[in-house]
Write a structure and sequence with these properties.
The complex is a heterodimer.
Chain A lengths: L1 H9 L1 H8 L3 H28 L10 H27 L1 H5 L2 H22 L5 H4 L7 H23 L8 H6 L4
Chain B lengths: L1 H10 L1 H8 L3 H27 L9 H29 L1 H5 L2 H26 L8 H26 L1
Helix pairs in contact in B: 2-4, 3-4, 3-7, 6-7
Classes of the chains: A mainly alpha, B mainly alpha.
Bound molecules: protoporphyrin IX containing FE (2 copies).
């Protein structure tokens, strides 16, 4: 893994992005705005599953009508996030919050697929309902917590001085 | 006048505490972003509907009434997590043009919401021609502008 990061770090295109004055602010700003589109919509979907809001909207309406937008936001988010990483791989390689964010995103993705291919199959039975199955409500809570944690770890990546002691002891960045 | 007000804010014991306490600023910043996500979703659900996208099978005024609370409370959360940052970095904010642009658009956005946007969203659907689209477009534009300027305060000043 380390050699992959070092290899990218030495690529001319990575160096060019790193040395550009405008690239970092532009990508980070687009990263935050696209996050709003993705995470903002997903949050209300999760809260619908939990039963906190939009209770009169049929559950299945949200994936069909809002997911294309949320996924567009996610796509832009991944591209800008990927470019940020590409431009300074060695800055993030030893960063606890970066790896935590990646793991959290992975778990959030597994939760999403699991929900979609298991619990969601029976949606016809509870589409209009106020009675959402426990599994669906749990998936909603888990998703809310995980995406909030992704936002938090995303912001914390800037604080390389505030990583847990046990992580620093591993000396990964050095 | 304004400058001495910002100097006064910077000099408050609370500001000194924020800067000294290692975790205070990062926690507040993270909370500001989580509140931002809640705010963005509440705004977008209605604005997309105004644009004729999103949850079109649900009556607009029903959606707007439901999202109203979420929008207001998440704005309160943005204010509560934004104000301490203004206090602790008052002079940096004062000298950043982006901060002033952000605050101007925030005020215009709020006025726009409570005068025009809400009225249009609560109105009888189909009675206003193309105006709902214009309103949805402006609303998305303003809050996006707020976010862009907000992020640039930290990056470019
Ligand atoms: C492959 C996916 C992603 C990658 C590689 C990635 C990478 C990055 C990088 C490199 C930064 C800059 C950190 C810094 O220099 O301070 C960042 C910031 C951030 N990311 Fe991501 N990211 C990804 C997806 C996401 C997602 C899905 C979310 C939220 C739902 C998210 C939320 C954030 C936030 C809130 C910040 C901080 C922005 C700020 O400082 O204002 N990221 N990300
Ligand atoms: C009156 C309410 C608000 C106040 C007092 C406030 C204040 C602040 C301050 C002082 C910062 C730190 C800027 C810096 O020095 O880097 C900030 C960051 C930010 N604010 Fe606000 N804000 C408010 C409302 C909003 C709203 C309504 C939005 C979006 C619609 C927003 C979006 C952001 C964003 C995206 C950031 C950058 C976050 C980061 O990565 O650190 N804020 N805010």
């Amino acid at each position: 893994m380390r050699s992959l990061f070092e290899w990218v770090d030495a690529l001319p295109s990575s160096i060019a992005l790193r040395e550009s004055l405008n690239a970092y602010p532009t990508m980070l700003t687009i990263h935050v705005v696209s996050m709003c589109l993705f995470a903002g919509l997903i949050a209300y979907w999760d809260m619908r599953l939990v039963g906190l809001t939009l209770r009169r909207v049929p559950v299945s309406n949200i994936p069909t009508r809002l997911f294309p937008w949320a996924l567009t936001g996610y796509g832009i988010n991944l591209i800008t996030g990927g470019l940020l990483l590409y431009s300074q791989p060695m800055r993030y390689y030893g960063n606890f919050y970066f790896w935590a964010k990646m793991v959290l995103m992975l778990i959030a993705g597994i939760n999403m697929f699991w929900f979609h291919y298991a619990t969601y199959k029976s949606v016809q039975a509870w589409d209009q309902g106020r009675e959402i199955p426990l599994n669906a409500r749990l998936a909603g809570v888990v998703s809310l917590v995980l995406w909030a944690a992704v936002v938090v770890t995303g912001r914390m990546m800037a604080y390389s001085g505030l990583m847990p002691q046990w992580w620093n002891n591993l000396n990964i960045g050095a | 006048m304004l400058q001495s007000f910002f100097q006064w804010m910077q000099g408050l014991p609370f500001s000194a505490w924020m800067l000294e306490e290692t975790w205070a600023s990062p926690i507040i910043q993270c909370a500001h972003l989580v509140a931002l996500v809640a705010f963005a979703g509440a705004v977008l659900v209605v604005d997309m509907r105004l644009l004729g996208r999103g949850l079109i099978k649900t009556p607009l005024n029903q959606l707007a009434r439901e999202m109203d609370r979420w929008m207001i409370w998440s704005f309160v959360a943005l204010f509560v997590t934004g104000a301490p940052q203004v206090l602790s970095t008052a002079l940096k904010q004062y000298y950043s043009p982006f901060f002033w642009w952000k605050m101007q658009i925030v005020i215009i956005g709020l006025l726009f919401n409570f005068t025009i946007r809400r009225r249009v969203a609560f109105a009888e659907e189909g009675s206003l021609g193309h105006w709902p689209k214009v309103v949805g477009f402006l609303s998305i534009g303003m809050w996006t502008g707020v976010s862009v300027y907000a992020r640039l305060i930290g990056l470019l000043s």
